[in-house]
Specification:
262 residues; binds 2-amino-2-deoxy-6-O-phosphono-alpha-D-glucopyranose; Rossmann fold; 29% helix
């Protein structure tokens, strides 16, 4: 894994956004795996601005999101489909038929089969991940099998609590979700994980410095051939960067890049 440590969040997002623009320009048919939550919002804002300046064209881009709450449809302002429409899709020239999220309503078995087929027929070129404070990625909660494909999850209490800040009250947070599995995530050709808030400090240290284990779903990434983790210098304060796990590859005014050993 590579680790990028940015001095501040603005430069982190500007850098990540510039990488996206370069990759989309190089491969207009790129298949992007996308995430929801607070973490990707500044990136989506920068990508929308770049589109407005005509620096990037999304007309042929395909997107496949990680997850959706069970029981919420696109008209519900707390659904992830609504989030993606509002925060990105409506602001760029992507074709609605090229954007996919798991469906959290209707026949769930059919929706799961649909998503598994979608993932079998499309390989994700670059998958964006946020991180739950308990180490979840997508909605793959601790102890999910590393071999999992799309499935329904019962959300942990900690996740319901974390995500309740976006709901009017905690009782309105769905107890279940549908998510692509850890095997699907691992199959992405390249993965970017962004973790830049204080509540991710402890789990980032466990991922980078601890063992690969199902208790920490994101630790599956330790064996992935092309994963980059983006953090800021506040989170980095907790890491043992002078230890043998980390080897410095590059540093400049904005960031340091480390190779992280398994
Ligand atoms: C939710 C999503 C995850 C996301 C996580 C972190 O649980 N299912 O995909 O990574 O929240 O959210 P935030 O970025 O708001 O911290």
């Amino acid at each position: 894994m590579k680790l990028f440590i940015f001095k501040n969040n603005d430069t982190l997002y500007e850098y990540v956004s510039s990488v996206y623009i370069k990759k989309i320009n190089e491969n207009p048919n790129i298949c992007l795996g996308l995430a929801t939550g607070s973490t990707p919002i500044p990136l989506y804002n920068l990508l929308s601005k770049s589109y407005q300046k005509r620096l990037v064209d999304f007309s042929k881009v395909k997107t496949i999101n990680l997850d959706e709450y069970l029981g919420l449809d696109e008209n519900n302002s707390e659904s992830y489909r609504y989030f993606m429409n509002e925060n990105l899709f409506k602001k760029i020239n992507i074709s609605g038929s090229n954007t996919y999220l798991p469906l959290g309503t209707g026949n769930i078995d059919t929706n799961i089969s649909f998503y598994n087929n979608l993932l079998a027929n499309n390989s994700i070129d670059l998958l964006l991940l946020g991180l739950g404070s308990n180490g979840h990625i997508g909605f793959n909660e601790p102890n999910t099998s590393f071999n999992s494909t799309t499935h329904v999850v019962k959300l942990k209490k900690s996740t319901i609590k974390d995500n309740s800040r976006l709901f009017e009250n905690i009782k309105l947070v769905p107890k279940k979700a549908i998510t692509m599995g850890l095997k699907d995530i691992f199959n992405a050709k390249e993965i970017f994980l962004i973790a830049n808030t204080k509540n991710k400090e402890k789990v980032i240290k466990k991922i980078l410095e601890g063992k690969r284990r199902q208790k920490i779903p994101a630790s599956i990434l330790k064996n992935h051939p092309n994963t980059t983790i983006f953090i800021n210098s506040n989170i980095a304060l907790k890491l043992n960067l002078t230890g043998s796990k980390y080897s410095l590859i590059e540093e400049n005014d904005s960031y340091e890049i480390f190779d992280v050993l398994k």
